[in-house]
Amino acid sequence: MTELKKHIEEIKEKLHQWSHAYYVLDKPMVDDLEYDSLLKELIKIETQNPQLITSDSPTQKVGGIVLDKFEKYQHKTPMLSLSNAFNDEDLKNFNDQIYKEMENNNYSFFVEPKIDGLSISLIYSNGILSKAVTRGDGVFGEDVTVNVKTIKSIPLKIANQLDYCEVRGEVFLSKKEFDKINHQRSLNGEELFANPRNAAAGTLRQLDSNIAASRNLDAFLYYYMDRETIATHSESMRYLDSMKFKINSLGKHCTNIEEVIEHIHYISEQRSELDYEIDGVVVKVDEFDLYEKVGYTSKFPKWAIAYKFPAEIKTTKLLNIFPTVGRTGRITYNAALEPVQLAGTTVQAATLHNADFIIDRDIRVGAVVKVKKAGDIIPEVIEPIIDKDFDTLEKFQEATHCPECNFILERFEDEVDQYCPNKECPRKIIRAIEHFVSRDAMNIEGLSIKIIEKLFANNFVKEIKDIFNLKNFKEQLIQLDKMGEKSVTNLLEAIEKSKLNSAEKLFFGLGIRHVGKKTAQLLITKYKNILDLKDIDWNDLEEIHDIGPTVTKSITKWFSDKTNIEMLHTLEEQGVNLKYLGQIGTKFSDSITNKNFVITGTLSKPRNHFKTILEEYGAKVIDSVSKKTDYLLAGSEAGSKLEKAQKLNVTIIDEQEFNNLIGGKNEN
Ligand code: IVH
């Protein structure tokens, strides 16, 4: 090593140490001036010798990169979310569930704050931070490495030298930083962020990394699994700490559920004192080798749960009740409220669901009402307060006509909701297009509701097929206010790209009643072409899970409408793909697609690994063995599920046979 290189390494080491002490340990070793002057020295040397800049240099933390867009990245293992507990009883049930699965194993818990930020996955290759990816939909996230590299408490280099080391955690903004940013924004006359979480999300998704660098994002890490070397979550936390990651100091190992509840109370008491927002407490089984035993539902691990703090309830005046119409024509009633601070945001609108909801609770305009945030997101009116003025207020009357097109509203038999039956109702069309372009449907970026409204008002898009003609109006679109050349070009590109989607996205996007994402997937995997669904024998569907008469009736009705068939033909002529292309590659197998699987016992990889593969083939992975189960994939130490499968004559396969199943009989 040359003298200069050695000198640089020494400076870098010092700066790493100082910055760890400052940003992670909150115990500064030197004052800011000393840090800055050494950093300046490094910048100077690196500017003169750019060949000596390494990706782990502290100088790489300052932003400076502007991207066009974020690349998509497929997580190696999906980023799951957690099921919720709202009280002690839920926590005890969680414990009972685990106890049942445990047979003779001892288990314990780890309890830590649930940080109200955004989950992030950090990938280190040979000790160097190489990728940082958002959760996205859990399977595909966005590569936000350039922004994450600006986070001072995230090390660019760690001592773990594995070629693949993944650590997960939460990016957040402290309350102090949040206030600072909003103060600055109000001085600049810019719109304020609603809460620290939104501000952090807005920052992480900035294409210009200088913005992230200026905003002091922070991150707690809470997930690292390398079962070869680490046996428990507590140990993994100590390990992350030794790798110089920022670990939350309120995490605690608890030996039983009573201790868990006690520590949850303790964390709740600390909540208002903390300099970052938490929205609950996460409880995890501590022993990694029990994860598989406890298992997963289709969405969540069963070895962890998020205890959510009770929703805050406030009272405010109900100023008005007004109906709105959605894409299916369903009427939702909304409340205009006198602004009130609720769980970190100013609330001035809330949902009242349907007319029956309002009538049952006797909610009246002018009344003082209780409001809360349902699931901490959408505010909801709970009930009115019956004060001395209440009787003077007029009782609520349900709407009789569509607020948008004035058609007389209808009700379906046995349904509480009212519907606008007008096929040409402008709001229904706009909402239908919004659904059509949404992420799980055609995934056309750049068509926000505002843009759709604008295109609709200017007669560019009056129905779905018009989206694919937009390319003929490029110049006119650029002229539309605020659209601009760049965004129009991006939009047209996104539209062209969407034509190549596998057909389940289009089928879901059509917005047929009762056809959700999963149903669309199952049907298209089986029938391969949307147009083929037109004349199939629905009795066949008995074989497909979860598809009952309500769904088939709705689909049959949709296809019996000639204009819908015409639309599909037009889309096909426009180059939109109507066929199944497979989710990842083309995966179909007679023995797997549409079959029911149960997974049990210890396998060479987490259960989710197998589940993901099976689902790629359109199989369904369920929790318990029944007569309907087609296969039990059993690892070693399989317990009661294996016994039950034997009793019911379910085909039992081991990992080797599973591999043959996917390798050997993959027909495409
Ligand atoms: S563990 C499979 N621990 O909460 C387990 N999550 O609904 C993965 N979160 O998406 C999550 N603090 O973004 C875990 N200490 C913590 C957390 C935490 C916040 C977030 C995370 C996750 C969501 C779960």
TrEMBL record:
Function in brief: DNA ligase that catalyzes the formation of phosphodiester linkages between 5'-phosphoryl and 3'-hydroxyl groups in double-stranded DNA using NAD as a coenzyme and as the energy source for the reaction. It is essential for DNA replication and repair of damaged DNA.
Catalytic activity: NAD(+) + (deoxyribonucleotide)n-3'-hydroxyl + 5'-phospho-(deoxyribonucleotide)m = (deoxyribonucleotide)n+m + AMP + beta-nicotinamide D-nucleotide
Binding residues annotated for Zn(2+), in chain numbering: C402, C405, C420, C425
GO MF term set: DNA binding; DNA ligase (NAD+) activity; metal ion binding
Superkingdom field: Bacteria
Annotated family: Belongs to the NAD-dependent DNA ligase family. LigA subfamily.
Pfam family, one: OB_DNA_ligase
Cellular component GO terms held in the UniProt record: cytosol
Keyword Ligase appears in the UniProt entry: yes
Lineage: Bacteria, Bacillati, Mycoplasmatota, Mollicutes, Entomoplasmatales
Organism: Spiroplasma culicicola AES-1
Record: active site: K114
Residues engaged in binding NAD(+): D32, L33, E34, Y35, D36, S81, L82, E112, R135, E170, K284, K308
Enzyme Commission numbers on file: 6.5.1.2
GO biological process per UniProt: DNA repair; DNA replication
Residue ranges constituting the BRCT domain according to the UniProt record: 587-656
Protein name: DNA ligase
InterPro entries: BRCT_dom, BRCT_dom_sf, DisA/LigA_HHH, DNA_ligase, DNA_ligase_AS, DNAligase_adenylation, DNAligase_N, Hlx-hairpin-Hlx_DNA-bd_motif
Key words of the record: DNA damage, DNA repair, DNA replication, Ligase, Magnesium, Manganese, Metal-binding, NAD, Zinc
